[in-house]
Amino acid sequence: MRYSLSIARIAGIEIKIHATFFLLLAFIAFSYHRSGGAAAAIDGVIFVSLVFLSVLLHEFGHAFAARRYGIRTPDITLLPIGGLARLERIPENPQQELVIAVAGPLVNVAIAAGLWAYLGLTGGLPHPSNIEQVGVSLPLRLLAANVVLVVFNLIPAFPMDGGRVLRAFLAMRMEYARATQIAATIGQGMAFLLGALGLLHSPPIPMLILVAVFVFIGAGQEAALAQLRSASAGLRVSSAMVTRFLSLRREDTLHDAVDALLETAQHEFPVVDADGGVCGILTRDDLIVALRKSGADTPVAEVMRVNVPALDLSMPLDRAFSLIQESGCDALPVLDSAGRLVGLFTPENVGEFMMVQTALKSSLPGGRLVRRPPPLPVG
Ligand code: ZN
Fold this sequence. Notes:
Order of helices and strands: EEHEEHHHHHHEHEEHHEHEEH
Distance between the termini: 39 Å
Bound molecules: zinc ion
Largest sheet: 4 strands, mixed
């Protein structure tokens, strides 16, 4: 994610904090300071930091559970609205998804239970009759925050953990794509209810409306992804790649890259050496950044991304999807069995290909467009 600051690396997972998170801390400090002075400001910042530590541990719960199934988590990002553990892939095995989804909230249950025990031992738990006036001690507030985190995350709607739990249960009984579709519809229904509740409440609750929008979009994305996966089952990279594209040579400069960018609709360019082997990918974003920093005479070889995975023609489409997600690059080169560059795999092109497939499927049942084999590269 952009504007994220890498702060640590724990157990091979990069911990990042989004810039807006510091705005939140500053806002908390400022508003507490106005109402209660420096002591209140420090207390507020400590409390919010501890809540986010709980969120971070929650994300580690997901990451460690995923690791049990051989799924890596390259990074965890903390945002003002919560945490985001970026798993390499979501397992299609419902039992595995269930364990990974539940592991996060379980961490908060454990933290809450620990605080409860601590407060019980030290006599810090309020008597039920005077619960109204307490809420002052830090451990008690942290306990409440962790309970809220559990409840909030178990709302059965994507992208909340509860949505994944729901899908896992459904997927044990039906096809994965259908389970996702149903879970997404339930999630959007929930989002609608939450939004209505936030709007109709007087005064309106902006936080609830924000969460509703967030859930509505998340549910739609998840459904689209699952549809894509089911539509692409059995298909190969060769059927959905771009076969007409421009490449750059290793010795080209950013000036040549700009010409290529403006001449074509392409955003990413494979960079090839004299023998035609792929040595990297130049993305539009990297090109623009480098132009600003070091000028048009910089060789593309200095700016291109190296170590991008190459796909082969017969690779299944869903495997290619996971690879392009992991790589964080918007295009991957496709090589033939001799290692020659024959195509470019981009999400946009795959999206267009899927639209065609869907249209064909609805017009002729069982119809599928099989593409002619790509022409051999010229020159
Ligand atoms: Zn979670």
